[in-house]
Amino acid sequence: MLRVASDVGGTFTDLVYFEINEKTGKALNIKTAKSNTTPGGYEIGVFDTLNKAKVDISNSKFFAHGTTVVINSITERKGVLTGLITTKGFRDSIEIARGDRPDFFNLRYKKPKPFVSRYLRAEVPGRIDFLGKELTPIDLTNLNLILDNFKKYNVESIAVCLIHSYANSSHEEKVIDYINNYWPDIDVVASHQITREWREYERTNTTALCAYIKPIATNYLDKLSKKLIESKFTTNPYVMQSNGGIDTFEATKKIPLTMIESGPTSGVLGAAELGKLIGEKDIISLDVGGTTAKCSLIENGNVKINTNYWIEKNRTSAGYPVMLPVVDIVEIGNGGGSIAWVDNYDKLHVGPQSAGAEPGPVSYGKGGSAITTTDANLITNRINPNYFCGGEIKADMNSVNQYTEILAKKLKFSKEETARGIIRIANNNMINALKLVSVNKGYDPREFTLIAFGGGGGMHATSLAKELNIPKVIIPVNSSVFSAWGMLMSDL
Predict the structure, then answer these.
(1) Which PANTHER family does the record match to this protein (predicted)?
(2) Quick one: 396 and 473 in the same domain?
(3) Overall domain count for the chain
């Protein structure tokens, strides 16, 4: 019997599978595989890893999947045109947002733009109080006109968020029933299906985000499910959830926002499980992939869950709230494929832009011209150019040297100094992320063990630990596919 887990990242798709003895329940064999992520057809990358590992998925009784498709669709603004239906008088709550203004002294500060434009936000009369008591019956008289207007603008998904629906969802249920009867083909999400917490802006934004990515996530899971069925996989496939649990494809398609941090979460769970095996209860996990670096803090063996999760929140932007339980992770745009670039003031930066899987770092020899952290590690011989990617790829060192020289001339440094500078800046960015989950929350890094994984974790871990005085660093076996391994730690 096989247990299989697949993790789709921004650059690579990972696979881990166990051969299980059905009588004893023990793993007889553990194998891994890795291939490039295939944007636009992520299921192709998943099956590339299965074929590479020579896995017959029809023999598997368990398949778990983690993905970055939801968070990528949001951050890259690749969701669908979305409409919003809310209670009369609350049309603009999603735009008014909160008074949070992180860039306090910027007199030209602008709030983050809502994911639903004002012309696609509509109101219906009806009121429920905070105790769930109906004050004014819901009036759906003009709902057909609202839906006709949405059709005119080619809306592909609708979010429904009515006042105090966390206490009484009857009004939202009536709106959904009407929409499903009047427009059966449209995707629709209501706030009571996602969360039962108060705060209108947070609930509205969460519902809008869920509707924004629902058709994309549904299509993605449908394609993968179809491919699994064609390969004679007979049991229910599962998707990793942001809260650390797993759920079926069918359940996840109803509320796909629950997999917003699907992939990174499994790495944190894997670190916690590894800590239990080796007697390390206080851990800082660091996952350095091709596109991003993710870190989280585990105290006394417990993974921390955050119910006040925000995306794109930084020093200059208030970000967007997601009212869902999410494993507490800090994620930054610094990975092996992060691009080194020079600004107008001749200052060197690394990330958040990434070379991705195509064309990838210059060293891949696929036509890339932007020097990345991986290329810098090759120049400094921190990566063996004669055994690049496990010997699967011959590093294009001629191109690496050529494009590094161009960058070095802008900085008036040597090629080697430029490469070392790229690595130091990347490390500094990761140190700041590690501080956000530790020092900034009152934890002393010296009391924790650093477990580093992902394709680039081992490259940077010791430098980061030295800077933060972390006494012990652990690099797991097969660390480059560790997040996929974490999914197999499920109780199912």
Answers:
(1) 5-OXOPROLINASE RELATED, HYPOTHETICAL 5-OXOPROLINASE (EUROFUNG)-RELATED
(2) yes
(3) 3
